[in-house]
Specification:
single chain, about 775 residues, Rossmann fold, six-stranded mixed β-sheet, five-stranded parallel β-sheet, GPCR_3_Ca_sens_rcpt-rel
Length: about 775
């Protein structure tokens, strides 16, 4: 079926052709160029077909395809001439010329058809009643040849209808105003081939094309479409069947060195024969071929591929067609004997491999050979869709003539009113079956899986790239992603980097081993402190308890119990109340503890000064003053904590920065000044206590408490001095563990250094727990 424009153009061209034919009749005489097959008729149709592949060596280059096309045309003409509905009363004749696949000869015979310059002998002055000029030309199959012929006959407006020339360039009606065809343009085939390649996932292919208009134009459209579809060409080379062997070998070398496994061949059948013949010399097999209709379903090409180079080739072909009676007519070649005896003889001898004239090398032809016993490219009907195109071309001309001549029951042989016949081109959907196990792989780079991104390789096409793994915290969940997206703040990329998973939250919990150990240590310290308090309460009236200021001792034990317990507030998921409680409780309880130790240290110093003659210093630091000092020192810390909580209190905080793959839930300090003020005040009291205890360490006594206070303050200060760098450098929950360890270590230091010696005397050396033993040899008063 033709589009409206094509039918209308054929209609108009035939009108012009008829007008010119009436003027040219009988006036052209000259050097004859006789057709290979011809028959007279009221209206003559021309044909340019390649009966041979070379004019000089005609006997050796007979082309069966040309004869098949001729037979298809003759079949259509016979049907039309026998029809009572189409062109009634009009007989169609024909003149078929051999182009020999040559542009020069094709143009020459086209001029012969145009001019009607075969010999015409007129015996009278009677005016001619039929035109000598052909009204339309059927053929040729080669795009380059059609371009040359259409350029020559275009000014004469003689329609040329090709059944196999597919070059998109021939659709240019400015250059080729009279060219028509019954086969789709390569514009559509080229785009369809690109889509076919993309359908199978082949993004890295090689391309070989005819070095003529057919190949160059077709491949240009393919490349344009391929680039839009993300297909890259590793190489694109051109060739022609007459190229020197060195050039063909160079093309084969390019193919053998390539990494692509798919070859898109925009070639005619003859070029394919030349190429695979050279490839067979190097045993180059295993390639996936994608071909055009020019060779993909040509049985002759398949038959000569003895090395299986083209195995598995795919491509586009013309839909199958069946015309009743055509096959039988085409195989009956005897009628050709009447229209072209020389050509018939040549065909018959080639078909049956015999000679009509005696030849000692070959058998003699009888003329009765049975063609059903022959199996070659002439008897092969795989090109029936192309034969059908010839058939449709002849019928298109007949229908146009039918309308031009105003045929009803009979036809007027003069031109009448012009009628326009509309015809529609139906689009057909082509579908392919896809078996992933059988489809070869041809890519420059493997697909980048999820979790990676594509990075183009420098200096190479866009199909060549490296797959770079997404960075930590980034992901890609699609194949061939060009970027990796960053995960939301509370998420992190998984191991494969193809998804984001919720970050693990981390804090020092009671369930983990470190939390359990610290909790156990805290409870153990609390129990030990309570045990010491019980011992002191049980032996509260003994000299050693009374001598060491029992009131401050019990207050110190109470504050140590709070110190051990306050460490528990640091364990568990931080909340608003726990964040405010942990630091303030720690600061206040430790100041209370140090205030008690400081009070005991001052009492030691005052007590020994009171033993000096005339000294009454104890009245200045009696029990009331001791209580007030403890309360005063503690109130200062309370005030600092109140200001801290009022201005910028600690609060729970999700730390996303310290670790990439986890969220640290911690207590932000709120005001760093408040935190360091609390620690600084504790450090100041501890330092003061250490200095005073150090000064009193050598005071005479059998049991000098100042020595033990010195050791306890030394441990306390060492722990907290070490704490600062350890706390700052420890990550996440370990910083909390460091702080708890410092609290527990300093608390155990105070408990052991101050109360362990006393408990030793009370429990294990009760004989020393007397006033006499406390007084010692020196007779000085013990504490």
């Amino acid at each position: 079926m033709w589009p409206v424009q094509g039918w209308a153009l054929l209609h108009l061209l035939l009108v012009v052709s008829f007008l010119q034919a009436d003027e040219l009749v009988c006036r052209q005489r000259g050097d004859p160029e006789n057709p290979q097959l011809s028959k007279d008729g009221d209206i003559v149709l021309g044909a340019i077909l390649a009966f041979h592949n070379n004019w000089e060596n005609r006997l050796d280059t007979l082309n069966f395809r040309g004869f098949q096309y001729a037979q298809a045309m003759l079949f259509a003409i016979k049907e039309i001439n026998n029809s009572t509905d189409l062109l009634p009363g009009i007989s169609l004749g024909y003149k078929m010329y051999d182009s020999c696949a040559s542009v020069a000869r094709g143009v020459k015979v086209a001029l012969a058809l145009t001019n009607g310059n075969e010999e015409v002998f007129l015996m009278s002055e009677t005016p001619c009643t039929r035109p000598a000029q052909t009204q339309a030309i059927i053929g040729d199959v080669y795009s380059s040849l059609c371009m040359a012929i259409a350029t020559v006959i275009g000014p004469f407006y003689i329609p040329m209808i090709s059944h196999f020339a597919t070059c998109a360039c021939l659709s240019d009606k400015v250059k080729y105003p009279s060219f028509l065809r019954t086969i789709p343009s390569d514009y559509h085939q080229s785009r369809a081939l690109a889509q076919l390649v993309r359908y199978f996932g082949w993004t890295w292919v090689g391309a070989v094309r005819n070095n003529d208009d057919y190949g160059n134009n077709g491949m240009a459209t393919f490349i344009e479409t391929a680039e839009q579809l993300g297909i890259c060409l590793e190489y694109s080379v051109s060739m022609f069947r007459t190229d020197p062997p060195e050039k063909i070998k160079n093309i084969v070398d390019i193919i053998s060195r390539s990494t692509s496994k798919v070859i898109v061949a925009f070639l005619s059948a003859k070029e394919v024969h030349v190429l695979i013949s050279k490839m067979s010399e190097y045993n180059l097999t295993g390639y996936q071929w994608v071909g055009t209709e020019a060779w993909i379903f040509d049985s002759k090409t398949a038959a000569m591929d003895t090395h299986h180079i083209l195995d598995g080739a795919i491509g586009l072909s013309i839909p199958e067609a069946h015309v009743s009676g055509m096959k039988e007519f085409m195989l009956d070649v005897k009628p050709l004997n009447s229209s072209g005896n020389e050509l018939f003889t040549e065909l018959w001898e080639k078909l049956f491999n015999c000679k009509f004239k005696q030849n000692h090398n070959q058998r003699v032809c009888t003329g009765d050979e049975d063609i059903s016993e022959v199996h070659n490219s002439f008897t092969d009907m795989s090109l029936m869709p192309i034969f059908n195109n010839v058939y449709k071309g002849v019928y298109a001309v007949a229908h146009a003539l039918h309308n031009i001549l105003g045929c009803n029951r009979t036809c007027n042989k003069k031109i009448q009113n012009l009628c326009w016949l509309q015809m529609k081109l139906k689009n057909k959907t082509l579908s392919w079956a896809k078996n992933s196990e059988l489809v070869p792989l041809s890519v420059c780079s493997e697909k980048c899986p999820p979790g990676t991104r594509k990075v183009l390789q420098k200096g190479k096409p866009v199909c060549c790239y490296d797959c770079i793994r997404c960075a930590e915290g980034e992901f890609s969940n699609i194949t061939d992603s060009i970027t990796c997206e960053r995960c939301p703040p509370e998420f992190w990329s998984n191991e494969k980097r193809d998804a984001c998973v919720k970050k693990e939250t981390e804090f020092l919990s009671y369930e983990e081993i470190m939390g359990c150990l610290l909790t156990a240590a805290s409870l153990f310290g609390t129990c030990m402190t309570c045990l010491v308090a019980c011992i002191f309460f049980r032996y509260r009236k003994t000299p050693i308890v009374r001598a060491n200021n029992a009131e401050l001792s019990f207050l110190l034990l109470f504050s140590l119990t709070l110190c051990f317990l306050c460490s528990l507030t640091f364990i568990g998921q931080p909340s608003e109340w726990s964040c405010m409680l942990r630091h303030t409780a720690f600061g206040i309880t430790f100041v209370l503890c140090i205030s008690c130790v400081l009070g005991k240290t001052i009492v030691v110093l005052m007590a020994f000064r009171a033993t000096l003659p005339g000294s009454n210093v104890m009245k200045w630091f009696g029990p009331v003053q001791q209580r007030l000092s403890v309360v005063g020192f503690t109130l200062i810390q309370v005030l600092i904590c109140i200001l801290w909580l009022a201005i910028s209190p600690p609060f729970p905080f999700k730390n996303f920065k310290q670790f990439n793959n986890k969220i640290i839930i911690e207590c932000a300090l709120g005001s760093a000044i408040g935190f360091w003020a609390v620690l600084g005040y504790i450090g100041l009291l501890a330092l003061l206590c250490f200095v005073l205890a150090f000064l009193a360490r050598k005071l005479p006594d059998n049991f000098n408490e100042a020595k033990f206070i010195t050791f306890s303050m030394l441990i306390f200060c060492a722990v907290w001095i070490t704490f600062i760098p350890a706390y700052v450098s420890s990550p996440g929950k370990f910083s909390v563990a460091v702080e708890i360890f410092a609290i527990l270590a300093s608390s155990f230091g105070l408990l052991i250094c101050i109360f362990a010696p006393k408990c030793y005397i009370i429990i294990l050396k009760p004989e020393k727990n007397t006033k006499k033993s406390m007084m010692g040899k020196g007779g000085s008063k013990s504490l």
